[in-house]
Amino acid sequence: MQPVIFKDLGIIDYKTAWDYQEKLLKENVAIKSAIRNDETLAATLDTTNYFLLCEHTPVYTLGKSGEMKNVLMSEDEMVKNNIEFFKTNRGGDITFHGLQQIVGYPIIDLEKFYTDIGKYLRNIEEVIIMTLAEYGIEAGRSIGETGVWIEADVQGKERKICAIGVRCSRWITMHGFALNVNTDLSYFNNIIPCGIANKQVTSIEKELGKKVNYEEVKISIKNNFAKKFEVEYLRKEILK
C-alpha cells in the first residue's frame, strides 16, 4: 500500500490549483534528480504522493494537442460571462471546469506503481466507473477516446460524463480528471468538448434526473481511488 496525502482544496480558481500542482511536481522531480545524482540520498529522501480534489470557478482549458477551432466563444464573450481561459500543458483538447464538477489531481510517482501511462489512464477511468456504478449508472470507455462514457457503443447516444487529461514528468503525474456531478452543462455549448463533434456531454444529475449530494460523490471517488491504486491515506491533511 503506497502512502498518499489527500487534500480537498474546495472551490479554487484554475490557475492557483495549476500552480500548486506544478510546485508539488517540481519538488518530487527535484528529489528524483538528486537521488539519481547521488544514490546514497535514497536513504533520506523520497517522493511524496498526493491526491487533490477540488471544484473550479468557470474556466475553459485547452490541452497541448488541442485546437483553437474547438473554442466557439470569443475572448470578449468569455470576459463578459466571467469565464476564464487557459492553454495548458496537459494532454487532450478543450474542456470546461465549473461548479458542482469534481476535479481530481493525482500527483503520484508512477515508478512506485507501474511505468505505464496507458494503464494509469485506464485506472483513473476505472475509479470513475466504480463511482458511477454506486449511483446505478452503467458507464464505460469509448475505443480510442480517453475518458468515461455512457452508451459509448450506441450511435447517436454516446455521452461523456468524465474528461481526463494528464501530464507526466520523470514519471511524476499531474492534472487528472473532471467528473460532471450537478454541473451546468450549458457551458459545454460554447466548445467542441475534447474536440469530439456530434457527441453529447452529460452529468450524474442529468442521468438520474435529480441532483445528488456532491460531498458524498467526492467521498466515493476518494475511497475508490484508494481501492484501485492500492494506496492508504496519511492522517496529515495540511500540505505545505
Could you give a short description of this structure?
The protein is an alpha/beta fold and 240 residues long. Helix content is 28%, strand content 30%.
Give the arrangement of secondary structure elements:
Layout: E1 2-12, H1 14-37, E2 49-56, E3 59-62, H2 75-80, E4 84-87, E5 94-97, E6 101-107, H3 117-133, E7 140-142, E8 145-150, E9 159-169, E10 172-180, E11 200-201, H4 204-208, H5 214-229, E12 231-233
Parallel strand pairs: 1-2, 1-12, 3-4, 9-11
Antiparallel strand pairs: 2-6, 3-5, 6-10, 7-8, 8-9, 9-10
Helix pairs in contact: 3-5
Structure description:
The chain has 240 residues and is of the alpha/beta class. The chain has one domain (2-233): BirA Bifunctional Protein, domain 2, CATH 3.30.930. Helix content is 28%, strand content 30%. The chain has helices at 14-37, 75-80, 117-133, 204-208, 214-229; strands spanning 2-12, 49-56, 59-62, 84-87, 94-97, 101-107, 140-142, 145-150, 159-169, 172-180, 200-201, 231-233. The strands form two sheets. Strands 1, 2, 6, 7, 8, 9, 10, 11 and 12 form a nine-stranded mixed β-sheet that branches. A three-stranded mixed β-sheet has the order 4-3-5. Strand 7 and strand 8 form a beta hairpin. Helix 3 (117-133) crosses helix 5. The model has no long low-confidence stretch (mean pLDDT 94).
